Amino acid sequence: MAVIKPPARNTPDALVVLDRLQIRQAFDVGVDLILVGVDELIVLDRGLGRSLDEAVGIVQDVFTGATRIWDDFGALTARSGPDLLLELGITPGSLLTGRVLRQGSDLSPQSMRAVTNIGNDLAEIADVGQLSDEAAGGLARLTNSVGDEGRMRRVLDGTGCALKIGAVSPASDYSLLALFDADPVYAEGCNIVGILQAAYNWDDAAVNGWLKISSVVSERRLGEVLGQVVNNSRSQRFFSILGGDVEWDVQHFEFLVKVFKGNFDDVVFQQIDDLKNIDGIERVVHDLAQGANPTVRGGLFELDLASELGADNIQSLAVKVNSKKGPDILLKDGRVLEAKAYSWSDMPPDFIRKSMIEENIQQIVQRTSQYPGAPIEIVFKGAKPTDPAEILIADEFFDAYQQLFNSGYKHVYVRWQK
User: Fold this and answer.
1) Which of 10, 127, 143, 414 is least enclosed by beta carbons within 10 angstroms?
2) 225 to each of 148, 191, 194, 241, 341, how far by Cα in Å?
3) What is the average pLDDT across 199-217?
């Protein structure tokens, strides 16, 4: 007859904790551990007619192989100690917590309770033993960050993946079946594995952004957004932007969501991320979210120009002066920049252009009053046009600025984008 050998791994922490428990308590813990192992055996052995040797092999795998329940138990006991271990019990959820700890995550006792309880709910409708290490680590990372089980449940509920408790509809009670694509009806709205795996791979800046915005936006809305930007690189960049020096309110947070759901190139998100510590980046995002072509084009050019100038050289973007629109870019060396993203091939009729030129001149006069003696640069997007008709239109603007310069505004400069 085959004999099941005890785990031949370094497990002093687990043995020490068991030794410190009273005999009856230690026995209960051991029985629970075996029962969870039997559950794993039932899950792993889907077929009938297995030989005893095969069954023994499966049990040994549960305790010492890929499933590694004993290792999870060891990690759990090393971190929890006897009292918390008895409170958590030996359940699929607590062993999931042990697996997370085995990966090196540093969970507070409160977070250990939260991951255990959520893991137990998961186990009612899915095999948490099949959850990837990254997804398990992502659950722990998010839970540890929000610091509260109720808040974490509301976040997950917002993604469309409610964990039975606090579910918003009968359908969402079962939405976690999509965890393993068991039910295609719910799979589309519940990419919980992708969400958790993405969170596991976030850098520190993204985690900081998650923490900052979680105090501003409701947990449910945060979960909805997390589900919408679930792609790993995109979700990391989204929350990394929020982790910058700028304080994002709910309104500008929603503008950022709209931009990320739009059809912008990844370069745009990289530029926003690079400029996330600059005052006014949230106002540029506001312009990008408007949908009106000239406004969006202007916002994109501000990003291009700011990226060329370098974040270290910029004091503020989309500046506000007495609550009104100020310069597009204010540099630390005192220069004031106005970015003009005109499309010379798509300019309006003469009478509208004249009005545009007059507004531009009034704008520059206002800037010289707001920033006395400061160099004021008007930067036109792209290179100087070569088409004769476009050259004539561009010259209308340049001639107006030249006249302004000749009339005494000697600190006004006009140039094309480098």
Assistant:
1) 10
2) 19, 13, 14, 14, 31
3) 88
Question: Which positions ≥6 away from 283 have C-beta within 8 Å?
Answer: 252, 317, 318, 320
Min mean pLDDT across 113-117, 152-156, 328-332, 354-358 is at 152-156
The DSSP string of 308-368 is: HH-GGGEEEES-EETTEE--SEEETTS-EEEEE---GGG---HHHHHHHHHHHHHHHHHHH
* Number of structural domains found in the chain: 2
Q: What is the pLDDT of residues 358-391, one digit of tens each?
A: 999 999 999 999 999 999 999 999 888 899 999 9
Which of 193, 212, 243 is the last residue before a domain boundary?
243
Count the neighbouring beta carbons within 10 Å of the beta carbon of residue 265: 9
> Within 13 A of 274's CA, how many CA atoms are on the CB side?
18
- The encoded tokens of residue 178 equal 């999509």
* Helices then strands, each counted (H, E), the chain: 20, 7
Candidates 280, 111, 141, 277; CA nearest to 211 is 141
CA torsion, ordered 401, 404, 409, 410, to nearest 10 deg:
50
Contacts of 153 (CB under 8 A, 6+ apart): 118, 162, 163, 165, 166
User: Is residue 5 included in any domain, yes or no?
Assistant: no
For residue 227, count other CB atoms closer than 10 A to its CB: 21
Distance CA 371, CA 334 (A): 9
Specify if 283 maps to a domain. Answer: no
**Cα(67)–Cα(60) distance, integer angstroms:** 9
Residues 135 and 238 in one domain: yes
Domain that holds residue 354: 334-418
Rounded to an integer, what distance in angstroms lies between the CA atom of residue 219 and that of residue 162? 13
Distances (CA, A) of 92 to 81, 130, 165, 194: 18, 11, 17, 21
Distance set, CA 78 to CA 12, 97, 101, 117 (Å): 9, 12, 9, 19
For residues 286 and 318, what is the distance between their CA atoms, to the nearest angstrom?
10
Comparing CA positions, the residue from 271, 285, 252, 267 lying closest to residue 314 is 271
Single out the residue in 213, 243, 273 at which a domain terminates: 243
Amino acid at the residue 201: N
For 63, phi then psi, to 5°, come to -95, -30
Query: What does pTM read for this prediction?
Result: 0.76
